[in-house]
Specification:
globular, alpha+beta, 87 residues
């Protein structure tokens, strides 16, 4: 199953570790460092030029080196609803 996260981008639901609200989570230094490190490693993917509302952390079975952080214009509440529809 796949989850649509904005602008014609879908990711495998089985690879999702979590989705997080940008406004609520970037208030902590740890989250800002995490997002900055992901960007520096080339593991960050911005989905759209629209204002970001959430970020989705993914990993596959091959390990941490294949993890990605998707910056999405879709809200966490919408992503949650979409993920529940598929189960």
């Amino acid at each position: 199953m796949y989850l649509h996260i904005g602008d014609n981008v879908s990711i495998k639901s089985s690879q999702i570790i979590g989705f997080f609200d940008i406004d609520k989570t970037t208030t902590t230094k740890e989250t800002r460092n995490f997002l900055s490190n992901s960007e520096q490693k080339g593991a960050s993917v911005t989905i759209s030029e629209d204002m970001p509302k959430s970020f989705i952390v993914t990993a596959d079975k091959k390990g941490e080196e294949n993890s990605k952080v998707y910056i999405s214009p879709i809200s966490v509440s919408t992503l949650k609803k979409r993920s529940k529809k598929g189960f």
